[in-house]
Amino acid sequence: MSARLELSDLHKRFDSVEAVSGLSLALGQGEFLSLLGPSGCGKSTTLAMIAGFLQPDQGDIAINGESQLRVPPHKRRIGLVFQDYAIFSRLSVRSNLAFGLEAQGVGRAERQRKVEAMAEQLRLGHLLERGGHSLNMSEMQAVALARVLITEPALLLLDEPMSNLDATDRADLRGELKQLQKSLDQSVLYVTHDQVEAMSMSDRIAVMRDGHIQQVGSPEEIYRRPVNRFVAEFIGDPPINIVPCWVKTSGSEICVNTACHNDLYMGHGDLSEGTHWLAIRPHVFKATHEASENSVALPVRFIENFGSEHVLHLQYGEDLVGVVVPPGFAEGRDLIHVSLDAAGVHLIDRTSEAVVRRRAVEVAA
Amino acid sequence: MAQESLDATAMKQAAPPRRRGLPFNVALVLPAQLTVLAVVLCPTLIVLWLSITDWQPTSGVTWYQAEPVWHWNFYDLYFDDRFIGALLRTILVVCVCVALELAIAIGLALLFLEEWPWRKLAVSAVILPMMIVPVDAANAFFMLFNERGPINHIISLVIGEAFEFSWLADPDWALLPIMLAEIWQWTPLMFLLVLTGLMNLPENQIRAAIVLGASPARIFFRVMLPLMAPVIAIALLVRSIETFKIFDPVYILTRGGPGAATETISMFMYNGAFVYFRMGYIAAAGLLVLIVVISICLALSKPLKRHHG
Q: Are A208 and A214 in contact (CB under 8 A)?
């Protein structure tokens, strides 16, 4: 039976460092929620508190509405997959899988049956008699997952489970993990620093930085409507472009100039005049070979080839910006004409680094 | 043609000058190697020679002129109850002492695994016996187990009547104080080895076992102990070899007596060589003991090999 998890106002301090401060987060039943952030942002500390290895200084952790602060780790009905997988290296894969059931006092026949079933589900049958120390990384990952799933945890905690895998294994596993989670209707808290994993698997993402949650929302929301510069920069590949801009206001209407594009109408908002930031996804620039009404010619500095698309790095005032184009688009050209639609860009307040929300009707991109 | 010979001359000239004397690396290690040769190989060869003679320093013959008796020393040893008894007694002492040391060391190490106030100081206190000169430690036990010593005194207090027992003079009990002295002094070494091993266990495997709901006993026997196998094998190896050579407590407490009741193999060889002056015979015994010790080493190092294989 999958569970709900509520974290309310969690605080944890190590000496002088506030690892987690005021973290509140709710994970619904059967939801796949990613805790995404750079290393050192407090996500692993949060995980350790949920698992019960660390006691929060303040705040509450509740599973299905019941506080877990006085509950020891093994009574929290949590399945935990470690970053290093923590396979019992001196035991066989079979014993690894059976370990949790044995500890729960499940009978031999029942244990046998469940191990076989789980091994079949995760296609581990051929590994069962192998020793834990002889597995490669992706095998360890699968065994670690099977070892906790077999105990039918109410909540599955995954701590960077793919950071030790090859790129191809990761791509395969993302799909498999998502399918498995759906079919089991399993509540999952997935801790990662890799935005691709978070974006591709999650129902919702919580972006974390310096112990604070920056934004919680669906992958779509996080990508389309980042709340601040950090989220905008952290999500998206190729990364978002941040360029300086100059804001003119008349009443609540905002108009901005950048180094190359002028008079972008940004609708209504609350922002002081002067220099601020404009965040532009590489797909938002429209690159053409011929000049058009709003376009400016930008010199090509270098090209990154990603196969299905190329990213041009163009001189934009004093900055370089990335612009996504189809392969071969910039073959043998020094100048590319680029136009910019104000609807797709995010205006960032220079002092607060928050994205200024526009009250105007969103113009279709 | 002329060009070729010119090149050849040039190459000859460019070649480095031929070295004189020893190569530098050989020169560096040679003194050490010669020393090792002198202190290991020579005595071994002398012992090999002596073991096939019946040389006695009191017989007036120099050692290299001694009369060979070939295999007869070994033949005699085989039928020498005192030798066989000493050998079996030593093996018993090794088994009892090392097993108890390991059990106590694991128990202590588990206590010291978690952080508690004064822990570092307590570790220093626990390993103190190891630092004491073995002869002094043995003397302390000689005093403790004296007929009128503290041990008998405490027993009197407990049972409520006068208790006088000569531990060291009783053939059935004299080995006990010797083994206790050995265990008391050397458990700390075992403790340090085991503690280091425990502290280096992969923490996440233990955490994983905790989350999976395993009891502390299950975690210890199923996860920690198997991971500790190599460390424990090394600890057993080191202590078995050392205990096999046990001498100080035997010499101080009983000199192998009463009779030969506490004579271990080193005590037997000491008595044979320096009390009875039977050098040839004891050389043969020494060789046999060497073979036994090497067998113990090989047996105990098997788990280590498996670990790396």
A: yes
